[in-house]
Task: structure prediction
Amino acid sequence: MLTNADMKFGSIKNEKGEEVEISEERAVSYLRSRDRSVRKAAFESLYKPYSEMKNTLGATFDGMLKTSKFYADVRKYPSPLAAALDSDNIPISVYDRLVDTLESNLTPLHRYLEVRKRVLRVKELHMYDLYPPLVEDPFKEISWTNAKDMMFRALEPLGDEYLSIVKEGLEGRWVDVFPNKGKRSGAYSWGSYGTHPYIMMNYTNNLNDVSTLVHEMGHSMHSFYSKKKQPYPTSDYCIFTAEVASTTNEVLFLNDLISETSAKKKRLYLLNRRLENIRTTVYRQTMFASFERDVHRLTAEGGDTTPDSLQNLWYDLNRKYYGPDVVIDEPLKMEWARIPHFYSPFYVYQYATGFSAATALAAQILENGVSSRERYLNFLSMGGSDHPINLLKSAGVDMSDPKPVEKVVSVFTNTLEEMEKLL
Result:
């Protein structure tokens, strides 16, 4: 209620010089503006109320940290991290290895930010310069029919059976496609045991929405295979594996678009899209995971978790991840207070592990064909019948090993090199 209802973000002038009221959602939209002064104004407007409420937000955050420590202590866990990972039997080494591997491979990210600075033609790259696309979206209008065709083509490596079920779902009205009066925003996949899955989305004829369809279909197909093969008690799957099924589809989709595109502008746009996907889902979420590990450890050791110490820790992490060529603006010190996932401790790392596993699986499916595909479909069918690390091992990816994360770094580096050649 505090951040969603009570905070007031003021107003800024848009690209036309018109005064517009700012909300959290509008600020994020204006951060993508081609007009740098609008981006800067939106950035400052977004963080101003957080700074004004830093003591309240800091106390709330500190309460969450102490609560997490209390429950870990009374249940005899060695740490809040161990307590959070225990339900899915995830070794702490998996978490630590993710953070350590990414933090040992920050150079490609720093190189990408140098390219961004050069393309935007700015003397200094500020945090509000990370949001606008480097290449304007060339995919203007994509009809629903074309969206389905694009998805079918991208998912061909998953085989005829997979595609026939996807087709059955589309023809059988599994998907609530278009925006409508009274319909909620966003997209999700849902269902129950004994029924087929359903997808709710709001398709508006752009590439992001096609990608959303592909992503949600990944979730739905995971549910379809799992509920078909598993008894009720083991038909549900945890977040650690859920994001793998959806993101594997997304990776296959973007790989297909890039492989089918030779036009320079479109190819540059798609390459930049892949870089941003990895930057925001792997690097950024791992930075979040590093922050969580540090603040929970600090609390467990009786350390200082005042608003100022949280701000300084957040600033130092951003400096480390984004490198010396990015100006870490003062308002960004309060960004930790904007991340609601932190109130579900040690959740966000699963976005990074999910993307890493999906990248490795998609590469195996494309390179090895039938054998890797069958392992992957079997993984979908296994639902929650084993611990997630074991399930992914059966699919061909060992998340206790740094190789899947290193694979993502390699994809990022190769994509950046190709993009630099085209610029």
The mean pLDDT is 96. The chain has two domains: 1-52, 56-137+237-423. The longest helix spans residues 264-300.
